[in-house]
Amino acid sequence: MRKSFFAGLLCLPVPLLAQKTRVDTLREVRILGQRPLLEKKLDRTIVHVDALLANTGGQAWQVLENTPGVLVDEDGTITLNGKSGVLVMIDDRPTYLEGTDLVNYLKSLPASTLAQIELLPNPPARYPASGSGIIILRTKRAERNGFHAQLTSNYTQSLFPHVSQSIDVNGQEGPWQITARAGYVYNRNYFVSDRYRRLFDSGDTDNQDIVEDSWAQNISYGASVEHKGRHTSWGALCNGEVGPYHELGHYQDGFLDATGKTDSLTDIRSHYHNQSADVSANAHVRHDWTHEGRSLSADADFVYDHSTAFQDEVSTTTLPGGQVSDIYELIDQQPFTAAIYGLKADYTDKFGQHLYLEAGAQETYSIRQNQGIYTDGTPPALTPDTALNNTFRYDEQIRSAYVTLRRETKGLALQAGLRMENTWGKGKSPDSSFRLDYVNLFPSVHALIGGVLSLAYSRRIDRPGYGDLNPSRFYFDRNSYFSGNTALQPAFSQNLEAAYTYRSRYTLTAGYSTNRGEIHQVFIAEGNTFYYYAINMDRAVVTRLALDVATPLTAHWTVNLHTEGGIHHYRSALPDSTLLNKSLGFVQVSGNTRYSWGKGWSAEASGFYLSNLLVAQWVIRPYGHLDLALRKKCWGDKGAVTLQGIDVLHTWINARTIYLSNAVAHFRNDFHHPAVSLTFSYSLGRKEIKTTEHKTGVEEEKARL
Q: Each residue of 442-466: pLDDT tens digit?
């Protein structure tokens, strides 16, 4: 089926302490403790990846699944604090992907490469104004002269095996720093879905059973070189991935009339294949003056992405007597290419002891093109379908400039910024074209009082992605498809947040967000056909209250807990001339508890629960999962073996109900199955690492590819 667009020991070496009368040698101090899961900053929340055993041996996608306040699904939708349209970045560089392409990329990135995750629901002006928030994945770098390598091998057994291998190398010698990464992932998945649709007018129903067997291989790579001079530093980096994806699907559609009698049965056999590859490169330079805090940096970026999707689908329809009434075959090819170019410059300065200035400018230019080639008919006599064939190209240029002032004094930190963005876009298909041209201002304000009370405000924009605009049809089966909407406009949101932290262990957060023009998918039922596309909602509001607890119960036992409750409200006119006006409360709970004892042993239990959640026309039904983990460190803490039980109660099942004016649809999707995972990791050389802080030029475009 074609898918639419998912602490251990701290070792501190201490020098010799010498006195004239005696010599005391303190060779090493070992502090038994655990790094906190969450750390609150002025404009972001830091999540330490290694603070959860559940992140061991997995990929970046699983790390996001375990991050408090973040929700993900297999279609690539990521929400932060109840808001979708989140921009995902790695070391301040966007992933340049959306939907299932983003899921596949994050599933190819080993969790062992990540040091921390930064959650920015109200990003400062230096970051792009696009998206309802930003999630930044920070990778590891060497901190001292020397060499460090991390080897990670994982085998997971569910219904089918999952294998992940990765090696990460960091080296630093004098002013030179070099990093390299390579990873291989093999995934085989088994997906089961039950779908029920009922039309109110006729009383007809459609019962659909879906079984998919898919397998994917992915090779990812990356390398960087940095030279840090006394005042001037420069560097370059390159990342990429390549891999095939195969999927075999078997779908059965049973159509029943109002009396419950079978009208017809459609049996669908599908084969889907996608070969994708992408590469990104960056070159950067930075100059630091002797004046404290004064610097100038510049970046140049290039990104190229290419994929060739192919789907062959055969539908056989039979009547109640068993006679075949129709055989239909659809062959769909979707080659896609994208190229993105970016330039960025940033200037920082310090005035006196407490005042800081940041200012910069950025320009990105992107070209995206997709071709839909359809052949259909009664096999073997297939002919090109000229009514469906389409080519869509979208060019976009975003120019921006920003300025930020920050003042830090004892007990008070204030930050205010303003960002201006000018967007120009042009879309073209064989029978139509459109243009976009608009300028907007985006203020942001942050305050941290006494190190415990934080206040934030920001205005954001959510531009429609290429997939939302593309008018081509993407078929799931003969009676279900997705199509883009070239009439989409950008959405604008206003966001407020206040948080209070008590004794660095308890944080209470209140948030309010209102969005005009929020982009959401709407579903349409016409006869036996069920399709959807994106529209601009008139108004969407999210109100939330969250409590985070991170506290040690004993010297060896810690607990982290995230609880959140709120209300989602949507109001909008729909394409069928009806009015959507719904509100629904939700509760989300996630947490973990870890116990450590002697000789490198530790155990952890982690879990998640989400109640009913309203998302425009549909309601996500409650679900949750429980994971268990046991770890043993060995070889002087250089090696570790981790055994995990994933979704041990098999409660991670995605179910949703879609409410239309003339129909209702129920979906039950089982993506996850209980699994046992074994991970071995080994470190060579120095273990000191730090997070990567380099900022590059294309901050948002890949998320909209």
A: 999 999 999 899 999 999 999 998 9
CA gap 454, 431 in Å, rounded: 52
Q: Give CA–CA dist 549/545, Å, rounded.
A: 14
Distance CA 439, CA 422 (A): 4
Report yes or no on 3 lying in a domain: no
Structure tokens at 153: 């091998």
41 domain residue, yes or no: yes
Give the residue from 10, 137, 296 showing the smallest Cα distance to 691. 137
Which among 398, 384, 270, 393 has a CA at the least distance from the CA of 336? 393
Place 182 in a pLDDT band, splitting at 50, 70 and 90: very high
What the block records as the tokens of 86 is 């989140």
Nearest Cα residue to 189 out of 166, 154, 163: 163
The 10s digit of each residue's pLDDT in 392-409 is 999 999 999 999 999 999
680 assigned to some structural domain: no
Residue 317 covered by a domain: yes
Q: What is residue 102's DSSP assignment?
A: H
Give this prediction's pTM.
0.86
CATH number of the domain bearing residue 591: 2.40.170.20
> What are the E-state strand segments in 200-294?
205-228, 232-256, 262-288
Rg of the chain on CA atoms, in Å: 26
Quote the number of domains for the chain: 1
Mean pLDDT of 619-624: 95
DSSP secondary structure code for residue 124 in this structure: -
Is residue 687 very low, low, confident or very high in pLDDT (cuts 50, 70, 90)? low
Q: Please, which residues have CB within 8 angstroms of residue 387's CB and are 6 or more apart in sequence?
A: none
Q: Which domain holds residue 132?
A: 10-675+690-704
How far is Cα 537 from Cα 465, in angstroms, rounded to an integer? 16
| Position 15 pLDDT exceeds 70 | no
